[in-house]
C-alpha cells in the first residue's frame, strides 16, 4: 500500500513523490544515512532482500564460478521460490546453461542469455538489456523488478588482481539510494555472492565505472516481485 504521507515526521524538504515520480507505491522506501554520513532516501526492501545472498560455491559439483547462477537463485527467492544454489546449478548442467569445463573457478559460469533462460524456465520471465544507465537500473529497482548486472569485479572490489576491463562477474542490486533533496542517484545496495557480502552500498561512481562503462549489460525480470506476491495472496 502507498502511504499518503510517508515522511510526515521529517522536514518538509523531503517530498518523495516529487523526487522519484516513477516509483511504484508497492516498493518500500525510507530515509537513512550512507556510510559516509550523507542522508539518503533508499528505495527497495534492502533488509529483506539481503537475506537472499550467500558465498557462491555451495553446490555438490565443485563449481565455483557460479555468480550468475547464484544471482538467479537470489532473484527466484525474491519471487518466493524455494531454491538453492545446488538446484540451479544442477538444472544449468542438465540443460547446457553454464560452463562445465576448465578449473573450478570457471565451471558454473553463465551468460546473460543463459540466466534469462533459467529464470524463465523457473517461472520468472525475464529479458536482458544492454547500454543501460544508472537511471535505467534505478527505475527497474523502483518498480520492484529483479535485476542481475554484469560488471568488472576488480573495480567493484577495488582489487587489481581481478581487474581485466571486462564484465567478469554478476551481482544483484537490491536497492537504490538517492539524495533526498535533489533526487540524484548516490549509489546502489547489492548482493555479491563472490564475497558473500549482502546489502553492500556501492557508490554511483563505482557502479558507473564497473558496469555502465563496460556496456551496462543486465538481466531484468518482466514484472516486479511485489506484484507477484499480490497475485499469490489473492
The number of helical runs is 9
Report the span from N to C terminus.
Answer: 15 Å
- Number of spatially distinct domains: 1
CATH topology-level name: Cathepsin B, Chain A
The CATH homologous superfamily is termed Cysteine proteinases
- Indicate the CATH class: Alpha Beta
Major sheet description:
8 strands, antiparallel
* Strand content bin: 15-25%
Uncertain segments = 1-23, 227-234
Could you tell me the mean pLDDT?
A: 88
The gist of it:
The chain has a single domain (16-233), classed as Cathepsin B, Chain A.
Description:
By secondary structure, this protein is α+β, with helices and mostly antiparallel strands. It has a single domain (16-233), classed as Cathepsin B, Chain A (Alpha-Beta Complex). Helices cover 30% and strands 23% of the residues. It contains 9 helices and 8 strands. Strands 1, 2, 3, 4, 5, 6, 7 and 8 form an 8-stranded antiparallel β-sheet that branches. The chain is globular. It starts with 15 loop residues before the first helix and ends with a helix.
Amino acid at each position: 500500500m502507498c502511504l499518503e504521507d510517508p515522511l510526515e515526521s521529517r522536514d518538509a524538504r523531503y517530498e518523495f513523490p516529487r523526487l522519484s515520480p516513477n516509483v511504484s507505491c508497492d516498493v518500500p522506501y525510507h530515509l537513512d544515512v550512507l556510510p559516509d554520513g550523507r542522508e539518503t532516501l533508499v528505495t527497495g526492501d534492502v533488509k529483506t532482500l539481503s537475506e537472499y545472498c550467500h558465498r557462491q560455491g555451495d553446490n555438490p559439483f565443485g563449481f565455483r564460478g557460479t555468480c550468475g547462477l547464484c544471482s538467479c537463485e537470489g532473484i527466484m527467492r525474491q519471487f518466493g521460490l524455494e531454491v538453492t544454489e545446488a538446484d540451479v546449478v544442477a538444472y544449468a548442467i542438465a540443460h547446457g546453461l553454464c560452463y562445465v569445463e576448465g578449473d573450478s573457478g570457471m565451471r558454473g559460469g553463465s551468460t546473460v542469455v543463459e540466466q534469462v533462460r533459467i529464470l524463465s524456465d523457473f517461472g520468472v520471465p525475464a529479458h536482458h538489456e544492454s547500454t543501460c544507465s544508472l537511471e535505467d537500473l534505478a527505475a527497474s529497482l523502483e518498480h520492484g523488478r529483479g535485476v542481475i548486472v554484469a560488471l568488472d569485479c576488480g573495480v567493484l572490489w577495488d582489487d587489481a588482481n581481478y581487474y581485466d576491463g571486462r564484465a567478469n562477474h554478476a551481482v544483484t542490486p537490491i536497492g537504490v539510494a538517492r539524495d533526498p533533496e535533489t533526487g540524484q542517484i548516490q549509489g546502489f545496495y547489492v548482493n555479491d555472492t563472490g564475497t558473500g557480502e549482502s546489502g553492500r552500498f556501492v557508490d554511483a561512481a563505482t557502479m558507473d565505472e564497473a558496469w555502465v562503462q563496460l556496456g551496462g549489460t543486465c538481466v531484468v525480470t518482466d514484472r516486479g516481485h511485489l506484484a507477484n506476491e499480490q497475485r499469490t495472496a489473492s
